[in-house]
Amino acid sequence: MNMQTSQTRSRAGLAAGLRVSISRLSRRMRAEGGHSLTATQIAALGAVARHEALTPGELAEHEKVQPPSMTRVIAQLEDKGLLTRSPHPTDRRQVILSLTPAGDKLFKEERRRKEAWLAQRLGELTSEERAILRQAAPILERISRG
């Protein structure tokens, strides 16, 4: 086996290990939310919270879904009283999505629960393990923006 093949296998093994671990961590954190919303609905609330106000098309683009799919998610969140639509300030054909106070509260509570769970789990690690994760966090962020 030459060096190139060894590096490829090593990268492939790392990719497989990270995929499994990140998927499990993501599933576990979703389970910590303790609400009845889907992952897509929570992601949509998060995007609107981060960007303060988005059009439906911008939200679909941020979440990398087709606009018709996002239209359904928006309608579900509106029905639950978590999102509201208001007229776009310059384009009458558009609307702006914003979180309602209930949507903002639910999103913040969701984030708080997940962070509390993760902080507890991090507390079970050694200081060396936490230092490694501190170094890995910006790298994982860079990969996720991809």
UniProtKB/TrEMBL annotation:
<keyword id="KW-0805">Transcription regulation</keyword>
<dbReference type="GO" id="GO:0003700">
    <property type="term" value="F:DNA-binding transcription factor activity"/>
</dbReference>
<protein>
    <submittedName>
        <fullName>DNA-binding MarR family transcriptional regulator</fullName>
    </submittedName>
</protein>
<feature type="domain" description="HTH marR-type">
    <location>
        <begin position="1"/>
        <end position="142"/>
    </location>
</feature>
<dbReference type="InterPro" id="IPR036388">
    <property type="entry name" value="WH-like_DNA-bd_sf"/>
</dbReference>
<dbReference type="InterPro" id="IPR036390">
    <property type="entry name" value="WH_DNA-bd_sf"/>
</dbReference>
<dbReference type="InterPro" id="IPR023187">
    <property type="entry name" value="Tscrpt_reg_MarR-type_CS"/>
</dbReference>
<dbReference type="GO" id="GO:0003677">
    <property type="term" value="F:DNA binding"/>
</dbReference>
<dbReference type="InterPro" id="IPR052526">
    <property type="entry name" value="HTH-type_Bedaq_tolerance"/>
</dbReference>
<dbReference type="Pfam" id="PF01047">
    <property type="entry name" value="MarR"/>
</dbReference>
<dbReference type="InterPro" id="IPR000835">
    <property type="entry name" value="HTH_MarR-typ"/>
</dbReference>
<keyword id="KW-0804">Transcription</keyword>
<keyword id="KW-0238">DNA-binding</keyword>
